Every structure is written in structure tokens, then in C-alpha cells.
Amino acid sequence: MAKQLIIMLLPLLFLLFILSEVVEGTKKSYGVYDNSNSVKLFVFGDSYADTGNFVGSPSYKQPYGITFPGKPVGRFSDGRVLTDYIASFLKIETPAPYALRNSSTLQNGINFAFGGTGVFQTLKVKDGPNMTVQIDSLEKLIQKNVYTKQDLQSSVALVTAAGNDYEAFIVNNKSIIEIKSFTTTLINQLSINVQRIHNLGINKVAIALLEPLGCLPRINAVTFHLSCVDLLNLVSENHNKLLLQTVLQLNQQVGKPVYVTLDLYNAFLSIIKTLQKKRDENSTLMNPLKACCVGDGLKNNCGSVDDKGEKKYSVCEKPELSFFWDGVHPSQNGWQAVYTLLQSSLGQLNHG
Ligand SMILES: *[C@@H]1O[C@H](CO)[C@@H](O)[C@H](O)[C@H]1NC(C)=O
Ligand SMILES: *[C@@H]1O[C@H](CO)[C@@H](O)[C@H](O)[C@H]1NC(C)=O
Ligand SMILES: *[C@@H]1O[C@H](CO)[C@@H](O)[C@H](O)[C@H]1NC(C)=O
Ligand SMILES: CC(=O)N[C@H]1CO[C@H](CO)[C@@H](O)[C@@H]1O
Predict the structure, then answer these.
(1) pLDDT in tens, 100-156
(2) How far from chain centre, in Å, is Cα 6?
(3) 16-46 pLDDT per residue, tens
(4) Which atom of ligand 2 is nearest to the CA of 189?
């Protein structure tokens, strides 16, 4: 197994080596196009924002990507994810994933987000880059003059993280009692991270509030997908309350609205409620608390196959009517609906 992994990783490492060489030499080629005034998007976080950094993960396997672009390309959804919608709001193309970057794909910014990672090291991907390492990567590109001060000033950063940190905490500590003090530690580190992003020169930093953890299909399975688990939603609420206070203080400190929050919590809840209501009137509609893609193994993983390559999952008839794609991630339909509700917050990202 380990041997196989190394064989799989070797070409990848070689590719990364080549790509990093390419980036070293980009200052010149970067000057070729003249759009240094156009906005760029830099993305940090986890699978809610990853558009292809986690090569070899389920997001690169069937049936991920069936709605858009029609094949698996590294998004943890059937189609577009939060990053795609924020980019479209900024009227730019989705920035390239850091792992796949080359000199011709730098003009829209870069996506450093990596599925399974967190603010701290998480369990899922022990060696996936946490948010600190993701910010280090941008810092290195700036040191190499890939991005100029002017580029960064007109740029926007998107930050999504913490869900995996809570999962790691709960699995590791097997206790929900100490979670309040963990939230404080987590927000402190997140605060350091977003200030670092601003100090690198980015003047607009959009920070996603934590989604209602208790509504994720993997969690609400304990209610047979009938309701969200309130206890875990309280964890999200407490996290968001502290994060909102922190953001308020940070904006006061810098004296301008650099930090903007995106309220995934209320967006998720509101959409789920609306869909539940519609379903009361039309029972053929999908339960928004259920995943569209469901695995039948013990781990219940969307995209899993058996030893013979036979698929061990099923996909709902109409992904375009679902809210959740798998046990954790919204479908494209879900993200689109969330995006609609985030419009007023996103307006604050326009550089005034
Ligand atoms: C750069 O990456 C893009 C998108 O992945 C690809 O379409 C293009 O061919 C690449 N260009 C070079 C020079 O490798
Ligand atoms: C992030 O990962 C690096 C490298 O594994 C590690 O040294 C660092 O302590 C981690 N940072 C946090 C905040 O967990
Ligand atoms: C109920 O929803 C289905 C979609 O699943 C739709 O095709 C059908 O027209 C709806 N029925 C009514 C009465 O609205
Ligand atoms: C993995 C994880 O989050 N472990 C935490 C368990 O609780 C202690 C005490 O609060 C933390 O220091 C650990 O980080």
C-alpha cells in the first residue's frame, strides 16, 4: 500500500518540481499581459473551497464533477463550489489550484485550499497543508515577485476552515465538554491567519462562518435525516459568535472594513428550511438533509468502489434538486442557493 502510494506520488512530486521551477521564472512572463489592475482571488481553507489541490482524493473520482464540468476534476461536489461562485461575483475566472498552477494561470489569483485540512493539523490528511502552510505558500510567491504590491492591493482573499478542526477535536478528544476552550484557541489562530493575509497586502478578506455542523448528512444520519443535531449546531453558533466579535475588533483596529464574514450558517439553515417546506407540499421532492450521493459501505463514502472496481454508491435522480451532494458537501445546486443568500455580504468586497 505504502509502496503504491509512493509510486503514485513520484510523478506528482516531479510535476510539482517542474511547476515550482516554472513559477520561479514567471516574473518575466507575468509582465506579458497587462491586467495588473484586475482583481485576483486568493483562497485558503478546506474542501468547501478546494478546486483541485487534493490530487488522488475522492474529488478526483467518479461521480464527483458529473454536473460540472462533467467529469471529476478535484471539486468536492457534483459541480461548482463556493470558490467558483465568489470568482464569478468578482467577474473573473476561477483561480487555478496551487497544485496545478503554471505561468499562464496566475492572473486570476491562486487557490491554496486543500480538502480535509484545517486551521490546525487535522486527522483526515495528516500531511495536507494547514492554513498556516497555505499562507506560507502565498508568501513565498510574493517573495519571488510573482505578485506585486499593486496586484495584492486590489485582490480578495477567501477563507473557509474549521469544520475539519472540530471533527478532529471530537474524534481525538472524545469529549464535547472542552470544546468551548478549543473554540477560543481555534479563533485565536484563525485571527492570526487572517491578519497575516491582510499584512501580505490583501485589503479584502472574506471569512466564511462555520456551517451548521449538526445538519451535515453524515451527522444528521443519527436522526435518520429528519432533523439537524442541535448540540453540534450549538458548537457552530458559539464558533460564529466568537468569530464575529473578533472580526469586529480587527476591523476597528485597522480602521476600515478589511474583513467581511460570509454567513454560511444562516444560509444553510434557511435553504434547508425552505426546501423542507416545499417538500411538505410535494412529497416527491428530495429531503434536503439527505445526501444525493450515498455510499453503501461501512464508511458510507460517495465514490467508493470495491476490489473489482464495482461502484458501491448510488446517486440521486436529480442532483439539481439536492442541497447536499455527499455526507459533508453541498451540491452545485446547494452552493448556488448559498451564493444567492450571500449577495449583500459579497457587496462589501468591492474595493471602495
Ligand atoms: C496551464 O494550466 C492550464 C489549466 O490547467 C492548461 O490549460 C494549460 O495548458 C497549462 N499551460 C502550460 C503552459 O502548461
Ligand atoms: C501547520 O503545519 C505545519 C507543518 O506540518 C506545522 O509545523 C504547524 O505547527 C501547523 N500549524 C498549526 C497552527 O497547526
Ligand atoms: C413535484 O416535484 C417534481 C420534481 O421532483 C415535479 O416534477 C412535479 O411537477 C412536482 N409536482 C407538483 C404538483 O408541483
Ligand atoms: C486534535 C485536537 O484537537 N486535540 C485537542 C484535545 O484537547 C486539548 C485540550 O483542549 C487540545 O490541546 C488538543 O489540541
Answers:
(1) 998 888 999 999 999 999 999 887 666 689 999 999 999 999 999 999 999 999 999
(2) 27
(3) 333 332 332 333 333 333 454 589 999 999 9
(4) 13
- Residue of the nearest CA to atom 10 in ligand 4? 182
* Any ligand 3 atom below 6 A from CB of 320: no
203-239 burial code (b ≥16 CB/10 A, e <16): bbbbbbbbbbbbbbbbbbbeeebeebbeebbebbbbb
Closest CA to 203 of 135, 151, 141, 155: 155
Q: How does strand 313-315 pair with strand 293-295?
A: antiparallel
Whether the CB-CB separation of 225 and 290 falls below 8 Å is answered with yes
Give the number of other CB atoms < 10 A from CB of residue 196: 17
Of 105, 5, 108, 2, residue with least CA distance to 55 = 5
Rounded to an integer, what is the distance from CA 253 to the centroid of its chain? Answer: 27
Separation of alpha carbons 16 and 310, rounded Å:
32
Question: Largest Cα–Cα distance in the chain?
Answer: 60
* Catalytic residue list contains 306: no
Asked if residue 236 lies in contact with residue 175, where contact means CB atoms within 8 angstroms, the answer is: no
237: its cell numbers: 453558533
Question: Can you list the domains of the chain with their CATH numbers?
Answer: 30-269+332-349 (3.40.50.1110)
